Amino acid sequence: MPIVVRIDVELARRKMSVGEFAEKVGLTPANVAVLKNGRAKAVRFSTLDAMCRVLGCQPGDLLEWVPAEDGAEETADSR
Predict the structure, then answer these.
(1) What is the Cα gyration radius of the chain?
(2) 45 Rama sector, left if φ>0, alpha if ψ -120 to 50, beta otherwise
(3) Strand partners, 3
(4) Please, which pLDDT band fits residue 76 given cuts at 50, 70 and 90?
(5) Which helix (H) or strand (E) holds 5?
(6) Cα separation of 57 and 49, whole Å?
(7) Distances (CA, A) of 63 to 2, 5, 67, 71
(8) pTM score, whole prediction
(9) Secondary structure (DSSP) of 24-45
(10) Is the dihedral of CA 8, 38, 55, 23 positive or negative?
(11) Cα–Cα dist 49/37, whole Å
(12) How many beta carbons lie within 10 A of that of residue 41, not counting itself?
């Protein structure tokens, strides 16, 4: 998937554990792991808002789009 989740980078910068982050955001550690490992299919804006509030960052600090390695770009029409 061309969206890379960088929660681990922001947690490391703040020396915050996944458990502490999960508690402050209102998620289970298992759900944070799903987000961190890029297995989530969607993120609610309210969750993204809470993550940014807790980490003091912008959504772009947590999510990054990168082109697919094979050069094929998926468009909304091709799904």
Answers:
(1) 14
(2) alpha
(3) 65
(4) low
(5) strand 3-5
(6) 10
(7) 10, 5, 13, 20
(8) 0.81
(9) HHT--HHHHHHHHTT--S---H
(10) negative
(11) 19
(12) 6
